[in-house]
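#struct-help
A.M.: can someone run this one for me? Single chain, 326 residues.
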Amino acid sequence: MNILVTGGAGFIGSHLCERLIKERHKVFCIDNFNAFYSPAIKRANLTNLIGNPDFLLIEGDIRNPQDLDSCFAGERIDLVIHLAAMAGVRPSIENPELYADVNIMGTVQALQACQRHGVTKLVFASSSSVYGNKEGGAFQETDNVDYPISPYAATKKAGELLCNNWHYLYDMSVVCLRFFTVYGPRQRPDLAIHKFTRLISEGKPIPVFGDGNTGRDYTYIDDIIDGVVKAADYVCKGTCFEIFNLGESRTIKLTEMIKTIETAIGKAAILDWQPMQQGDVAYTCADINKSRQLLEYNPTFSFEAGIANFIRWFEQNPALHCNIAL
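D.P.: on it. Structure tokens below:
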């Protein structure tokens, strides 16, 4: 298949492009290399892809119809995997206009481009943040998600609704994937596991928000990519609109996460306790029964093994996390 991946130079996107190439697909990648974090890191993410005849990089912005049209100018695209977005809960509170523009209008442009070019299969990257502050229990796809607590979460909910519109209006087959805190090699430097690892290694304090009892369902990158590929296979089987959780179904408390990193690098953290931040949810935990049943999604990486892999990558790639002001 010919597959267009938006945001393909990012953490998840670059891993996905590599997996798709390995499975003998031709991959068209669009990315605008914005300065949310160092564009040099995103370019380094593509090191194993540049020069491969089955990989084409288009530098452009998903908000620009002409940039999107250039992705379809050559060979026919069979499937779009839409990952491109402004990420991060806390930055979205500081700049909600940008998040609405990129995540909502950018998704509209991606859907319109599919319509213009006759593409009827799309996988959309959503987020566990759409669930908001759920009170108890694992998060199920059937839960009410009408109360997101950050602009980022609201834009991802809006993206799901837009995808449903295009499914209803134009018979587009769409799968929306709610990712639960993805980590592993190439993780964005602003995210907690990467940031904490860097600060602990440098002997600097790490900011700990709240009382340490907040928890996240951390999902290793290889498991996420396996779920995305399975979702791509699923969406190509027929006309559908489905939402799936992709997580590990295990909540790791913040204090446990810090201890796991300390153990892996053999160095104690200096804790800088700070108040809980706006937009942060108390915990996340994915119910993945639907994904197991319909996608045959089966995460295999324990948190401890995933952290060990990340630390190994971190130590072997100092240029990708040194001198980052975050």
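A.M.: thanks! Residues 233 and 295 are 9 Å apart (CA to CA).
D.P.: also worth noting: The longest strand covers residues 121-127.
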